[in-house]
Specification:
The protein is of the alpha+beta class. It has 3 helices and 6 strands. The protein starts with a helix and ends with a strand.
């Protein structure tokens, strides 16, 4: 009997001990993970707002030099005007690249410009790549006013039209 107990103690953990350990790890991760992701989420949202404001400033600089409003492809260096070689290749930061669907992915957010055939560029949407994980808010930059607004209840991805009603201003 003594030999059997010695062998049993050398075998390792029992099934109930392992189940308790797995349960503790699960509970800690359920409460700890959202708190650990919260600073990154706020950083992504702040970065999206800063990039939208930078986009508006770049559009103003482009229009001051060329006399015509710029589109997102022009600001990212994809469509530079041949008649104005003195313009820089890109007025937007490095890594602000257009994807095939016309959206830009940067800092956990996607950016897409809304173009009207007769009026030109109207504004730019910014929405989280993974809603709830990389951001919670959807933003609209209105090119006419230069304001960035938070839009409520927008389906993702946003439509290729401006919002029906202007959201609340950032403040």
């Amino acid at each position: 009997m003594r030999r059997w107990r010695a062998r049993r103690s050398e075998r390792g953990f029992t099934l109930p001990e392992l189940l308790v350990l797995i349960g503790l790890i699960t509970v800690v991760s359920l409460f700890g993970l959202p708190r650990a992701l919260e600073p990154r989420l706020r950083l992504n949202q702040d970065s999206a707002v800063r990039l939208l404001r930078m986009l508006q400033a770049s559009r103003s600089a482009w229009e001051a030099r060329t006399g015509v409003p710029a589109t997102l492809p022009q600001l990212t260096g994809y469509l530079s005007p041949d008649e104005r070689p003195e313009l820089p290749r890109s007025l937007m930061p490095h890594g602000f690249f257009l994807r095939d669907d016309g959206a830009v992915l940067r800092g956990g957010y996607r950016f897409r410009e809304v173009l009207e055939p007769r009026q030109g560029p109207l504004g730019c949407w910014a929405w989280p790549k993974l809603a709830g994980y990389s951001g919670r808010e959807v933003y609209w930059l209105d090119y006419a006013s230069g304001e960035v607004r938070v839009q409520e209840g927008v389906e993702l991805p946003p439509p290729l039209t401006p919002p029906a009603a202007m959201g609340r201003p950032l403040g």
